[in-house]
Amino acid sequence: MITRSARLLVVAVVAVLFGALPAWTGPAQAAPVTPSAAPTSVTLIGALQSELGCGGDWLPDCAATHLTRSTSAPIWVRSFALPAGSYDYKVAINDSWDETWGWGGIQGGAQITVNLPVAATVRFYFDERTHQISDSVNDVIATAAGDFQSQLGCPGDFKPDCLASLLADPDNDGTSTFVTTALPAGSYSTVVAMNENFDVTYGAGGVKGGANIAFSVPAAGSTTTFSFNEATHLLTVTSAPAQLRVTTSPALAADISVDGVQRDSWGLNWVPFDVGSHQVCFGAVPGFTAPPCQTVSLATAATTSVVGTYTARGYLRVITSPAVASTISVDGVPRNDWGVWADVAPGTYNVCFGNVAGYAVPTCRNVTVTAGATATTTGTFTASAGAPGPSSALGLLRVTTSPAVGAMISVDGQWRDNWGLNWMRLAAGSHQVCFGELPYAVAPACATTTVTAGATSSLTGAYALKGSLRVLTSPAVPAVIKVDGVAANVYGVWAPKPVGSYTVCFGPVPGKTAPPCQTGVAVTAGATKTVTGTYT
């Protein structure tokens, strides 16, 4: 078989030794026209047309040599029986010389020569996307046939005659390729089928008639490339997904969620995701304000990096001296009684003290909180006979956490204090109490409670402590780790998890055998469960 590269070499040698002779390519043409996006006809034109029922040669409007568009790909194809001889050809679009394509997919380019020492049936191909022309004499005609073809529009799988997965060698380097982004995530297998049938196939290791070649697509929209070495018959398949890289600044053990699903803590290591839009959110970390969620658009075969910038908070501590049941207000909002020790954003706060019977109330004051530090102020109460107490129309709200955790308690949408509320005075009526998020515990739902004048209403927020799930790969490999079927991270995982049983699976790695999934992985409160996936 004479390949295009061999033919190029012959042309180059002849040109050097004898001088290149001009070849007739049809009537003189005007400047190239805009290529037709969807041709209505493609005609095989050249010195072979009179052999195929046309009234002469080089006739672009001869229907006898029209090619037929494939139903599965924008490729025009047809077989013709030709007598022995040498034939020059190219293709014409829409029955006209206005747009022709020749050697190398060049508009108006040189004709291609088919040499037949004996009569033969020759199959011709024209790809309307790349404008490449091939034939079964000069070129390797190969398709990737496998259990993925139905995803490309083929009428089924393992269809060697489906041109949707036709391999092509446009640069004549001896490697035919097919590239697609249409495959869903999953595991597949394929072989190379020659000449649109299974008479000759090449499988694993380039072996004729060899075993199917397994490959995986990590995420929908991945750029999957089939590369077939025409000399060694070795097929390699690679799949480059859209990848998401997430870091926190400063580095913190924050939960990273994508599309509303927790993935891992600290960050994500180039995790494959489907092409398209995804929302990345950052979990609560005590002492820091979490960044807002970010929406990112992922592109095939590219890495998108997201940085979640946390800002350090400080602490506002308010003490009463002596310890008295004064309602502490910050910026005009009652926060707690007796005292406050709250996680707040850096800034200046106005702190005031409520009435206590028999004591003179200290004056309000401004307190400045800086990041990473605790600002403390003491309200000193002095005895004052006859000084009024708080209003009798108020009731008391007592809030505790179980177990005791440093979560922020909010009432009616306003932050109040961390850990709990010490019989805080509130107006009688219905109030909503909410419990702040913590990375190491599952917060209880908000609760509505009724405060009655002169009485105490008590509420306990029961937090469910989490455990930690640590997943390692041995040796460390870029495998996608899935927890309960959801991609968590690559290489490994170390994340807080609610108490329960989990299934951990290990993704494929080229050249390695993946370990089986591990089921029934039990995470217990306050403990770390470690799972290792050993690749061989």
Task: Give short descriptive properties of this protein.
Immunoglobulin-like, 5-stranded antiparallel sheet, 51 strands, disordered N terminus, mainly beta, 1 helix
Describe this structure in words.
- The protein is an all-beta fold.
- The protein folds into 6 domains: 4-135, Sandwich (Immunoglobulin-like), CATH 2.60.40.10; 142-240, Immunoglobulins (Immunoglobulin-like, Sandwich), CATH 2.60.40.10; 242-311, Immunoglobulin-like, CATH 2.60.40.1120; 313-390, Immunoglobulins (Immunoglobulin-like, Sandwich); 391-465, Immunoglobulin-like; 467-534, no CATH class.
- The longest helix has 15 residues, at 4-18.
- Mean pLDDT is 93; it is low at 1-30.
Summarize the structure.
With 536 residues, this protein is mainly beta.
Low-confidence spans: 1-30
Number of extended strands:
51
Mean pLDDT rating = 93
Alpha carbon gap, first and last residue: 42 Å
CATH class of the largest domain: Mainly Beta
Per CATH, the architecture of the largest domain is Sandwich
Query: Which structural class do you get from the secondary structure elements?
Result: mainly beta
Radius of gyration: 37 Å
What fold name stands as the CATH topology of the largest domain? Answer: Immunoglobulin-like
